[in-house]
C-alpha cells in the first residue's frame, strides 16, 4: 500500500509544473481505484494515508484533481470513464474534503467523458486497439505472452472480432452505469446551487443521454436501466439544494423538450413519462415545478415543427402533458390555443390540430351544463376559432380545419348538450338560413383538392345535425363534385351525397343522387364502380324491395265522387314512404336510365340481384292497379308507377323465375285491350315526331312506354314459358307488327321480343335462324305492299288533281285526305319496321324495297329518275316529311348491313346533310354517319370537314349531338385531330348554348389533364402548335 501511494505521489509531483497538465496514467488510476473502493466499501486508513502524504509533500488536492480531469478529457473512452469513476469515488470516500475536490471544470470534464462514451465507435477501432496491445506487451520476459496475444488477435480478425467488440461494448456499458450510479450519490453530497452554469450543463448532458444511448444499449434491459439513472439524476437536480426550483424546473423541461418533440422512440417515451409522472409528483409539493409544467405545453407549441408528421407527434406529446395538469390550467391553455389560432401560419396549423384533441380530452365536454352559459363556454370559442380557420389564407390550414371540424362533429353525435353548442357555432338552427352554408359552398368549389375533399367530408358528418331539408345549392355542389377529376374527391362526394340520400327522402335529394352517382358506373376507377354498385343496391334496390316486400294491398272500392288522380297519387305515396315512388319515377329520366341499365346488368352478371326485388316491383304495380280501381276510375286511364316496369324489365333478364307469367299475361291483355284508341295516338305521334325541325325531343306516350317495357320483360322470361303460351304470344306479336299502326318504340320492342322468343324456343341455332328469316321475309313483303299502296294512291291523287279544274268538292276531298292520312301513318311505320327487321336479320332479301326507298329519298330533286320508281312522280319530302325522314333512316340501317350499298350512298347522305332544312333529318344523318365512320372509316374520313360543320348548326340538339358523337370517335381514334376539326371544336367553347359550352369545357379540360386521350399524352402540346400555325 505504501509503494502504491509513493508511485501516485511521484507521478503527481512530475505533473505539477507542467502546462497543460498531462492526464494521469491508467496504472495510477487502477491503483487509486484499488484502495479507494473494494466491493463498494471504502478503506479509511488507505485514503487517510493518501491525504496525509499529499499534505506532507505540500501538494494540494488540485494536483490530484487536475490530472484526473485531464484523463477524463482524453480520447480513450475506457481511460476517460475510469478517470470519471475514480473522481466520483473520491467524493464518496470517508472524511473526504468534498468542497475542495469539486470544481466546475472537473464537472465539465466528467460530463464530457460521459458524452464521449455514448458516441458511436469508429469503424475498426476495436481491431486497431487489439493490434496495439500485443506490441506494448512484447518487451522483456513477456515475449511469449506477446506472441500469444498476437495469435489471439489473428483469430479475432478471422472470426472472433465481432465477439471481442461485443465484450468491449458490454464493458463500457457497465463502466458507464457505475459512473452514473456514483454521480447520483455525489449529487446528494455536492450542492450545485452555487454553480448555476454547472447545473445547466449537468441537466443538458443527462437529457441527451437517452438519445445518445439508443445505439450503445443493444437491448431494452440496458436501455431501461440507463433511463432509470437519468431519471434519478434529474430528480436530484430538481431538489431545492441544487438551486431555486423556479430556475431548475424550467431548465429541466427545456432540456427534455427536444426529446418530447422528436420522432417516436424510447427516448421520447422516457421524457414524457418523466414529465407526466415524476415531475407531476414533485409538482404536488412545489408551486414552482407546477408552474413550469403548466407553461410547458405553451413552450412546446412554440417549438413544434412545421412538417405534418412531426407536428402530429408534437400534438400527441402536448396532449399527454395537458392531461397531467389541473383543470383550471387546462382551460388556460385552451384560451392560449384559441389566441394562437390567430397567429403565424405554423401556429395556426398547430392550433387547428390541437383544438379537436382538446375538445374531446376534458371531462367537462362543454364547459358548462347551464344553458345560459353555453355562449360563454370554452368549447364554443374553440369551435369558432376552428370555423374561422376553415377560411384561412393557407390552403393546407383550410383543409386541415375542415377535416378536424368534421372529426369534432362526428364525435359529438348523440350528446344533446354538445349538439346545442355545435348548432350555435355553425348556425345550424335552420339549414337554409345561411350559417355554414356559405362556407361549405365556397370550400366545395375551392381551387385546392384537399380543401374540396375535406369540405365534402364535413358535409357528410353534418347530415346527422341538419334539421329540415338540405340547401339546393349544397346538393348541386355535391353532385358536381361527383365529376371531379380526382378520384379521392369523387369518392368523398359520393359518400356525402349518399349520406344525404339516407337521411332525407326529398325529391331534390333523390334527383341529385340519381343524376350524379349512377353515371359513375363507367368511371375509370374500379373501386368507384364497385362503390356505385353497392350504393345502388343499398339506396335503390333494397329500398324498393323493403317497400314492396309485403303482398300487394287488396283495396276495397271507395264510393267517392271527388276521387281524382291527385288523391290517388297521395294515397299511393302514403303506401310507399321513403321516396320510393320518387326513386322509380326519376329512373325513367333519359339522363339516368342508361346508367341504371348498366348497373343492373353489372349486378346481374355478378349474381347480386335477388328475387325479392322482382317480387317487390310486381307488388308495387299490383297495388297501384288495385288502388286505381278502388277509386272507380276507368282502367284504360291507369298506368303503373313510372319506373316500375323499367326496373322490372332490367332485373327480369337475370331473375326470370321470379316474375309471374300470369302477372305479365294479365297486364299484356290490359294494355292491349284499348288498342283502338291507342292506334290513333300512335299515328298522331308517328306523324308528329319528325315534323318540322325544332321540336325534336318529343316525349313518349306513357302507355306505349309501358308496353315496350312489358314486352322486354316478357322476352326476358320467355325461356320459362311452356310451349302453348309461347306460341300464342308469338302469334300476337306478329299480328301486331303486321298492323303497322304502332309507335316506333313499340315496333322495336315487338321485333326484339319476337326474335328472343324464337331463339329461346328453338331446338338449335339453325332452327332459330330459319324461324326468324321466315317471319322477317313475311313482314318485309307486307311492309312493301303498304308502301306501294300509299305511293300509288298519291300518284293517282296527283293525276286527278291535275285533270280536274276546278278541284273536286270539299266533302269528297276530306274523305280522301282522311284515308290518305291513315295510309301515310301505316307507310311510315312500315318503313321504320323494315329498318328494324334489317338490324334483326341482315340477310333479308331487300331487292324490291331498295329502289322504292331510293325513289323516296331522291324525290323532289332535279336529277333524272326513272318513272318506273314509285314516288318519282311527286315529292315525298314535301308531301310526307315524316315518311321522307324514315326513308333516310331505314336506308342508313340497310347501308350498315351492306357495305357495297354504303359505298354508293354515303356521298348522298353527306349531300343531304348539307342541303336539308329539317333539323330532325340532319340529326339522324349525323348519327348514321358516325356509325358509318366506325364501320367504314376510310369512306367517311374524307367527309369529316363537312360533318364537323354541324358543330355550328342552327339547332342546339344537332350541335350537341354532333359534339358528343365526334368526341367519341376522336377518343376511340376513328377520327384524327387534323384540318379544321380542332378549330371548330374550339368554337364550341363560346357556343350560345350552356349545355354545349359545358361539354366543350369538360372535353378540353380533360385533354389538358391527359384523361380523355391517355394514348396521346402529348395531344395538348400538338393541338397548341396546330392552333398557333392556324392563326
TrEMBL record:
<feature type="region of interest" description="Disordered">
    <location>
        <begin position="798"/>
        <end position="817"/>
    </location>
</feature>
<keyword id="KW-0539">Nucleus</keyword>
<keyword id="KW-0498">Mitosis</keyword>
<dbReference type="InterPro" id="IPR016024">
    <property type="entry name" value="ARM-type_fold"/>
</dbReference>
<protein>
    <recommendedName>
        <fullName>Condensin complex subunit 1 C-terminal domain-containing protein</fullName>
    </recommendedName>
</protein>
<dbReference type="GO" id="GO:0010032">
    <property type="term" value="P:meiotic chromosome condensation"/>
</dbReference>
<keyword id="KW-0226">DNA condensation</keyword>
<dbReference type="GO" id="GO:0051301">
    <property type="term" value="P:cell division"/>
</dbReference>
<dbReference type="InterPro" id="IPR032682">
    <property type="entry name" value="Cnd1_C"/>
</dbReference>
<feature type="region of interest" description="Disordered">
    <location>
        <begin position="121"/>
        <end position="165"/>
    </location>
</feature>
<dbReference type="InterPro" id="IPR026971">
    <property type="entry name" value="CND1/NCAPD3"/>
</dbReference>
<dbReference type="GO" id="GO:0007076">
    <property type="term" value="P:mitotic chromosome condensation"/>
</dbReference>
<keyword id="KW-0131">Cell cycle</keyword>
<dbReference type="GO" id="GO:0042393">
    <property type="term" value="F:histone binding"/>
</dbReference>
<dbReference type="GO" id="GO:0005634">
    <property type="term" value="C:nucleus"/>
</dbReference>
<keyword id="KW-0132">Cell division</keyword>
<dbReference type="Pfam" id="PF12717">
    <property type="entry name" value="Cnd1"/>
</dbReference>
<dbReference type="GO" id="GO:0000779">
    <property type="term" value="C:condensed chromosome, centromeric region"/>
</dbReference>
<dbReference type="InterPro" id="IPR011989">
    <property type="entry name" value="ARM-like"/>
</dbReference>
<feature type="domain" description="Condensin complex subunit 1 C-terminal">
    <location>
        <begin position="438"/>
        <end position="547"/>
    </location>
</feature>
<dbReference type="GO" id="GO:0000796">
    <property type="term" value="C:condensin complex"/>
</dbReference>
<feature type="domain" description="Condensin complex subunit 1 C-terminal">
    <location>
        <begin position="921"/>
        <end position="1010"/>
    </location>
</feature>
Amino acid at each position: 500500500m505504501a509503494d502504491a501511494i509513493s508511485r501516485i505521489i511521484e507521478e503527481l509531483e512530475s505533473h505539477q509544473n507542467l502546462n497543460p497538465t498531462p492526464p494521469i496514467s491508467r496504472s495510477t488510476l487502477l491503483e487509486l481505484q484499488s484502495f479507494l473502493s473494494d466491493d463498494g466499501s471504502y478503506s479509511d486508513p488507505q485514503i487517510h494515508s493518501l491525504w496525509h502524504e499529499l499534505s506532507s509533500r505540500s501538494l494540494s488536492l488540485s494536483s490530484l484533481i487536475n490530472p484526473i480531469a485531464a484523463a477524463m478529457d482524453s480520447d480513450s473512452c475506457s481511460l476517460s470513464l475510469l478517470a470519471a469513476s475514480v473522481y466520483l469515488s473520491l467524493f464518496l470516500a470517508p472524511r473526504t474534503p468534498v468542497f475542495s475536490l469539486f470544481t466546475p471544470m472537473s464537472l465539465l470534464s466528467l460530463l464530457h467523458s460521459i458524452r464521449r462514451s455514448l458516441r458511436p465507435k469508429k469503424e475498426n477501432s476495436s481491431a486497431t486497439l487489439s493490434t496495439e496491445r500485443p506490441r506494448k506487451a512484447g518487451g522483456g520476459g513477456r515475449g511469449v505472452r506477446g506472441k500469444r496475444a498476437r495469435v489471439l488477435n489473428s483469430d479475432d480478425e478471422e472470426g472472433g472480432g465481432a465477439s471481442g467488440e461485443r465484450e468491449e461494448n458490454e464493458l463500457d456499458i457497465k463502466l458507464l452505469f457505475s459512473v452514473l450510479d456514483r454521480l447520483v450519490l455525489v449529487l446528494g453530497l455536492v450542492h450545485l446551487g452555487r454553480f448555476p452554469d454547472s447545473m445547466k450543463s449537468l441537466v443538458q448532458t443527462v437529457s441527451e443521454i437517452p438519445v445518445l444511448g439508443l445505439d450503445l444499449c443493444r437491448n431494452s434491459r440496458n436501455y431501461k436501466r440507463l433511463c432509470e439513472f437519468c431519471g434519478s439524476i434529474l430528480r436530484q437536480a430538481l431538489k431545492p439544494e441544487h438551486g431555486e426550483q423556479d430556475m431548475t424546473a424550467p431548465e429541466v423541461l427545456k432540456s427534455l423538450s427536444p426529446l418530447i418533440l422528436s420522432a417516436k422512440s424510447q427516448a421520447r417515451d422516457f421524457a414524457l413519462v418523466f414529465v407526466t409522472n415524476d415531475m407531476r409528483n414533485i409538482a404536488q409539493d412545489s408551486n414552482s415545478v407546477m408552474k413550469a409544467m403548466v407553461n410547458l405545453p405553451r413552450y412546446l407549441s412554440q417549438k413544434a415543427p412545421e412538417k405534418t408528421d412531426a407536428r402530429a407527434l408534437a400534438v400527441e406529446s402536448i396532449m399527454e402533458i395537458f392531461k397531467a395538469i389541473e383543470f383550471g390550467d387546462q382551460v388556460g391553455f385552451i384560451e392560449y390555443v384559441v389566441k394562437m389560432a390567430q397567429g403565424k401560419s405554423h401556429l395556426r396549423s398547430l392550433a387547428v390540430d390541437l383544438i379537436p384533441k382538446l375538445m374531446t380530452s376534458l371531462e367537462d365536454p362543454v364547459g358548462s351544463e347551464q344553458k345560459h352559459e353555453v355562449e360563454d363556454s370554452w368549447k364554443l370559442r374553440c369551435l369558432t376559432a376552428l370555423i374561422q380557420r376553415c377560411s384561412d389564407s393557407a390552403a393546407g390550414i383550410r383543409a386541415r380545419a375542415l377535416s378536424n371540424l368534421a372529426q369534432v362533429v362526428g364525435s359529438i353525435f348523440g350528446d344533446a348538450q354538445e349538439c346545442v353548442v355545435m348548432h350555435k357555432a355553425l348556425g345550424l338552427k335552420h339549414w337554409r338560413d345561411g350559417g355554414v352554408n356559405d362556407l361549405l359552398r365556397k370550400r366545395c368549389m375551392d381551387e385546392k383538392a384537399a380543401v374540396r375533399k375535406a369540405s365534402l367530408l364535413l358535409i357528410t358528418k353534418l347530415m346527422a345535425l341538419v334539421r329540415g331539408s338540405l340547401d339546393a345549392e349544397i346538393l348541386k355542389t355535391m353532385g358536381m363534385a361527383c365529376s371531379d377529376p380526382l378520384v379521392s374527391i369523387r369518392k368523398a362526394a359520393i359518400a356525402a351525397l349518399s349520406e344525404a340520400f339516407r337521411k332525407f327522402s326529398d325529391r331534390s335529394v333523390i334527383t341529385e343522387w340519381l343524376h350524379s352517382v349512377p353515371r359513375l358506373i363507367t368511371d375509370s376507377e374500379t373501386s368507384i364502380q364497385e362503390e356505385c354498385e353497392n350504393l345502388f343496391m343499398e339506396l335503390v334496390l333494397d329500398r324498393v324491395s323493403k317497400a314492396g316486400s309485403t303482398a300487394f294491398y287488396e283495396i276495397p272500392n271507395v264510393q267517392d265522387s271527388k276521387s281524382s288522380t291527385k288523391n290517388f297519387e297521395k294515397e299511393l305515396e302514403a303506401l310507399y314512404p321513403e321516396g320510393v315512388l320518387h326513386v322509380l319515377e326519376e329512373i325513367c329520366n333519359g339522363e339516368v336510365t342508361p346508367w341504371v341499365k348498366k348497373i343492373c346488368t353489372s349486378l346481374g352478371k355478378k349474381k347480386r340481384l335477388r328475387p325479392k326485388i322482382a317480387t317487390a316491383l310486381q307488388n308495387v304495380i299490383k297495388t297501384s292497379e288495385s288502388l286505381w280501381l278502388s277509386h272507380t276510375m276507368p282502367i284504360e286511364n291507369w298506368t303503373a308507377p313510372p319506373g316500375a316496369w323499367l326496373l322490372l324489365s332490367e332485373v327480369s333478364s337475370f331473375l326470370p323465375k321470379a316474375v309471374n307469367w300470369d302477372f305479365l299475361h294479365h297486364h299484356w291483355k290490359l294494355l292491349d285491350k284499348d288498342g283502338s284508341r291507342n292506334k290513333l295516338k300512335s299515328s298522331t305521334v308517328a306523324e308528329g315526331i319528325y315534323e318540322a325541325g325544332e321540336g325534336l325531343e318529343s316525349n313518349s306516350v306513357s302507355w306505349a312506354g309501358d308496353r315496350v317495357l312489358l314486352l322486354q320483360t316478357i322476352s326476358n322470361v320467355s325461356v320459362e314459358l311452356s310451349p302453348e303460351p309461347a306460341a300464342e304470344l308469338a302469334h300476337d306479336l306478329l299480328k301486331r307488327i303486321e298492323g303497322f299502326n304502332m309507335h316506333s318504340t313499340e315496333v322495336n320492342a315487338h321485333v326484339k321480343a319476337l326474335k328472343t322468343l324464337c331463339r329461346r324456343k328453338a331446338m338449335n341455332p339453325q332452327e332459330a335462324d330459319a324461324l326468324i328469316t321466315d317471319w322477317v321475309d313475311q313482314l318485309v313483303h307486307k311492309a312493301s305492299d303498304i308502301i306501294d299502296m300509299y305511293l300509288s294512291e298519291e300518284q293517282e291523287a296527283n293525276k286527278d288533281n291535275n285533270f280536274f279544274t276546278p278541284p273536286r268538292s270539299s266533302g269528297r276531298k276530306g274523305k280522301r285526305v282522311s284515308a290518305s292520312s291513315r295510309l301515310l301513318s301505316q307507310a311510315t311505320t312500315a318503313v321504320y319496321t323494315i329498318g328494324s327487321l334489317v338490324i334483326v336479320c341482315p340477310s333479308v332479301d331487300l331487292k324490291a324495297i331498295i329502289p322504292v326507298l331510293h325513289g323516296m329519298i331522291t324525290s323532289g330533286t332535279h336529277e333524272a329518275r326513272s318513272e318506273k320508281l314509285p314516288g318519282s312522280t311527286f315529292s315525298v319530302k314535301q308531301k310526307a316529311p315524316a315518311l321522307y325522314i324514315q326513308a333516310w333512316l331505314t336506308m342508313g340501317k340497310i347501308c350498315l348491313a351492306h357495305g357495297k350499298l354504303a359505298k354508293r350512298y354515303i356521298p348522298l347522305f353527306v349531300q343531304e346533310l348539307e342541303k336539308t332544312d329539317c333539323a330532325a333529318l340532319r340529326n339522324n344523318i349525323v348519327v348514321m354517319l358516325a356509325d358509318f365512320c366506325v364501320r367504314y372509316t376510310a369512306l367517311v374520313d374524307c367527309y369529316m370537314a363537312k360533318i364537323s360543320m354541324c358543330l355550328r348548326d342552327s339547332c342546339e340538339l344537332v350541335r350537341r349531338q354532333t359534339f358528343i358523337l365526334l368526341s367519341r370517335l376522336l377518343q376511340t381514334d376513328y377520327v384524327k385531330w387534323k384540318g379544321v376539326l380542332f378549330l371548330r371544336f374550339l368554337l364550341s367553347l363560346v357556343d350560345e348554348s350552356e349545355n354545349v359550352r359545358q361539354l366543350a369545357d369538360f372535353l378540353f379540360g380533360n385533354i389538358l389533364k391527359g384523361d380523355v386521350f391517355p394514348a396521346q399524352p402529348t395531344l395538348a402540346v400538338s393541338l397548341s402548335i396546330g392552333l398557333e400555325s392556324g392563326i
